[in-house]
Amino acid sequence: MIKNNMDKKRKDDFLWFALALLICLGVGALGSIFTAPAISGWYASLIKPSFNPPNWLFSPVWTTLFILMGVALFLILRRPKNIQYRRQAVSLFIVQLFLNLLWSFFFFFLQNPGAALVEIAILWMAILLSLIYGAKVNRAVLWLLLPYLLWVSFASFLNYSIWALN
User: Which CATH number fits domain 2-165: 1.20.1260.100, 1.25.40.10, 2.40.50.100, 3.40.1010.20?
Assistant: First the structure.
């Protein structure tokens, strides 16, 4: 009986882990639909600051961040539903994922760095809240989402700089 419960727990954990990764990487893939066509066209024509990273760097950085987000989401989802702050952590996580996707839409698809700048400020706050509430559910979430918050902080400054230069 104990072995069956452990096997079921492992299977459930695997399914939650796969789902969390699929959700986060799926958002990244959706965002790339807006991003990819603009990289060699509109984005290439913009004046960029000297600290703008090379284009090849964005894909591995974002893939890594979406994987870290997936692990963080898994750690939140695997906690019992009655754990304090779990529902808020999941809700905030979904909001920040949506806002992440929305930024790509504003910046690359609409080609509107000004609107994207306003949106990324809201995204930054949503990430911070997601990190805070996620850490209340599982402390490791703090460390998994911190690189994301730092990267979006940098991306915010980059977004501002591109908007100001153009």
Answer: 1.20.1260.100
Percent composition of the chain: helix, strand, coil (DSSP 3-state, to 5): 85, 0, 15
The residue to which tokens 């996580």 are assigned:
93
pLDDT in tens, the chain (166 residues): 566 666 777 888 899 999 999 999 999 999 999 999 999 899 999 999 999 999 999 999 999 999 999 999 999 999 888 889 999 999 999 999 999 999 999 999 999 999 999 999 999 999 999 999 999 999 999 999 999 999 999 999 999 999 999 9
